[in-house]
Amino acid sequence: MTTKVLLFGTGGVGAVYAYFLEKGGASVTAVCRSNYEAVLQNGISIDSALFGQVTAHPSVARTAAEAQKAHGPFDYIVVCAKAFPEIHTLISAAVSPKTAIVLCQNGINIEAPYAAAYPSNTIISGVVYLPVTQTRPGHIRMGPLQKLHIGPFPAPGTPSAQEQTQKFAKIFEAGGGVIHVHPDVQTQRWLKLALNFALNPMCALTRLDDANMYRSSATMPKAILDVMTELTTVARAAGYEVSLELIQEQLSRTKERQETGGKEPSMLTDVRENRALEVDAILGNAVTIARQLGLETPRMDLLYALAQGLSYSIAPDERFRPLGM
Ligand SMILES: NC(=O)C1=CN([C@@H]2O[C@H](COP(=O)(O)OP(=O)(O)OC[C@H]3O[C@@H](n4cnc5c(N)ncnc54)[C@H](OP(=O)(O)O)[C@@H]3O)[C@@H](O)[C@H]2O)C=CC1
Ligand SMILES: CC(C)(CO)C(=O)C(=O)O
């Protein structure tokens, strides 16, 4: 029987995953919002540095409820929306007893709301390497890297969760995607977080892509590495072996991009588009974990405060006052 996948959040990452899953033989329905008309009319067009110009043609829906009615029940719901607290509630209409929920998002501790809301469903945690941007509705530009690390949450999962994880990987791989299954993917999550915790807010605050930010001053490379190093102390205290060599390796892509041109991290795209920022998923949750572990993290705390300020400048609330002079 054909595997049915619902994609929730068809932006840069979701669009590319829709393409792999469709090509891998799944029947894919994509929940689209601002790009609904574009994707309905023309599908998703991907300009990839890895495999050229391709198009995906998922079925399209405006909500999970609409998708469930027309194409459910779904074997998998792949969440590729930004990691915000309310998103888990928006998929509920499409969660059936056997649906596995695959989270493809940056950040740490992003699984908790899903595990609490859907305690009987398999949760698969996904760590995304995919430099990608939606340049206009339904049009995606993808850089020369693609890797997805997945594993059941909480690890190691039940035998049936492990089976669902392996089956997802097979479809993704059959569609041309590079994917690695881990018994516990959290070490990978911390490793990726080290990059995002530093690059995403620092690029968003300076409004520079990663390569230009890296070379913007003599002090910047050390400032970036210091934040990443501080985060590794939290990862290690939390029980995950994230070595400094691996951190250096993470940063090597930014260094390589000195030659080829930089990547604008997703948080900078959000700032430019005046959209909400993933401040808690990428920064706040790790700072909370550091406090719980009794660790001092002055660099992370400062960056978190600045990212919160940046977010507040995009969405000020009743505390905001105009200039006094
Ligand atoms: N871009 C990148 O290079 C990378 C991103 N990531 C991570 O992957 C995740 C996805 O990022 P990315 O693809 O860049 O994000 P995008 O902002 O490009 O895509 C998110 C999509 O979710 C949609 N969405 C949000 N809320 C709803 C809703 N209520 N109903 C329907 N659709 C909704 C948005 O619609 P709308 O357009 O209407 O807002 C948008 O199309 C994030 O966690 C990010 O940090 C990880 C690695 C690299
Ligand atoms: C830092 C980067 C580009 C790495 O792929 C990323 O994860 C993002 O844009 O959020």
Automatic annotation (TrEMBL):
Function summary: Catalyzes the NADPH-dependent reduction of ketopantoate into pantoic acid.
UniProt key word rRNA-binding: no
Enzyme Commission (EC) number: 1.1.1.169
Organism expressing this protein natively: Microthyrium microscopicum
Similarity comment text for this entry: Belongs to the ketopantoate reductase family.
Annotated SUPFAM superfamilies: 6-phosphogluconate dehydrogenase C-terminal domain-like, NAD(P)-binding Rossmann-fold domains
Sequence ranges assigned to domain Ketopantoate reductase N-terminal in this UniProt record: 6-154
Annotated transmembrane regions: none
BP GO annotations: pantothenate biosynthetic process
Database matches in Pfam families: ApbA (PF02558), ApbA_C (PF08546)
GO terms of molecular function: 2-dehydropantoate 2-reductase activity
UniProtKB keywords: NADP, Oxidoreductase
Reaction(s) the record says it catalyses: (R)-pantoate + NADP(+) = 2-dehydropantoate + NADPH + H(+)
Recorded GO CC terms: cytoplasm
Entry-linked Gene3D superfamilies: N-(1-d-carboxylethyl)-l-norvaline Dehydrogenase, domain 2 (1.10.1040.10), NAD(P)-binding Rossmann-like Domain (3.40.50.720)
Positions of the Ketopantoate reductase C-terminal domain: 184-309
InterPro entries noted in UniProt: 6-PGluconate_DH-like_C_sf (IPR008927), 6PGD_dom2 (IPR013328), ApbA (IPR003710), KPA_reductase (IPR013752), KPR-Related (IPR051402), KPR_N (IPR013332), NAD(P)-bd_dom_sf (IPR036291)
Name by which UniProt lists this protein: 2-dehydropantoate 2-reductase
